[in-house]
Specification:
- Helices cover 52% and strands 9% of the residues.
- It is of the alpha+beta class.
- The radius of gyration is 17 Å and the shape is globular.
- It starts with a strand and ends with a helix.
- The mean pLDDT is 97.
- The structure holds glutathione.
- The site of glutathione has 17 residues, from helix 1 and helix 3.
Length: 218
């Protein structure tokens, strides 16, 4: 093992899912430690990560926090995480940055919970506007760059797909109103072996790790 990836409760931790997918896609040989998220600020997280947040990656002497920095670090090791072609790569970086910086209304109204069915909940004008923009991103990217496969840039599940995987999880849990193109993309992401592995591991987490604030939406 050449390091450690710290993540939060898999059922809820959307940023951890991004970091974990990136590390696994880049095939880094790291140990994983799950630090259960708490109802308030976590001392345990503050102890391991400079921001008190996960994901946090400690790899061969490099310490990397924040999912987008982890994406770039992993792509240095596995360049195919970004598309090879310049214009496609620019699109992948732009939509990943947009995801990383935004969609706050969606994230607040539809928190990730991999074990519940919240179909129809969480819809308000702001979250619906975020959903519409994401639907546009998926449709445009798939049309322009994704012809040869089911993912955003075609056949290979890359960094941009990893950045949007927790959004897909929210769309599934909340049955968000999306286009047929986005529905098909969401099904492909959900069926990816790493995403399935994460859902399976989330289902095995102790019920004691569940947090009322994410379980009491319905
Ligand atoms: N910008 C950060 C966000 C990380 C973040 O917000 N992580 C959440 C878990 S999903 C966290 O660690 N929250 C601290 C807590 O719940 O105590 C990233 O991209 O990695």
């Amino acid at each position: 093992m050449s390091g450690k990836l710290y993540i939060g409760t898999r059922r809820y931790s959307s940023w951890s899912l991004r970091g974990w997918l990136l590390v696994r896609l880049a095939r880094l040989d790291v140990e994983e430690e799950v630090i259960p998220l708490e109802a308030g600020p976590s001392e345990a997280l503050r102890h391991v990560s400079p921001t008190g947040m996960v994901p946090f990656l400690d790899h061969n002497g490099a310490k990397i926090w924040d999912s987008l920095a982890i994406a770039e670090y992993c792509a240095e090791i596995a360049p195919a995480l970004w598309p090879a072609e310049r214009v496609a790569r620019a699109q992948a970086r732009s939509i990943s940055a947009e995801m990383h910086a935004g969609f706050r209304a969606l994230r607040i109204a539809m928190p990730m919970n991999l074990g519940r069915n919240y179909a129809g909940l969480g819809q308000n004008p702001e979250s619906l506007a975020d959903i519409a923009r994401i639907d546009q991103i998926f449709s445009e990217t798939r049309t322009l760059f994704g012809a040869d496969g089911p993912y955003l840039f075609g056949a290979s599940f890359g960094a941009a797909d990893a950045m949007f995987a927790p959004v897909v999880a929210r769309f599934i849990t909340f049955a968000a109103p999306v286009s047929a193109t986005t529905e098909a993309y969401c099904a492909a992401v959900r069926a990816h072996s790493l995403v399935s592995e994460w859902y399976d591991l989330a289902a095995q987490e102790p019920p004691a790790w569940r947090l009322d604030k994410y379980e009491s939406l319905a």
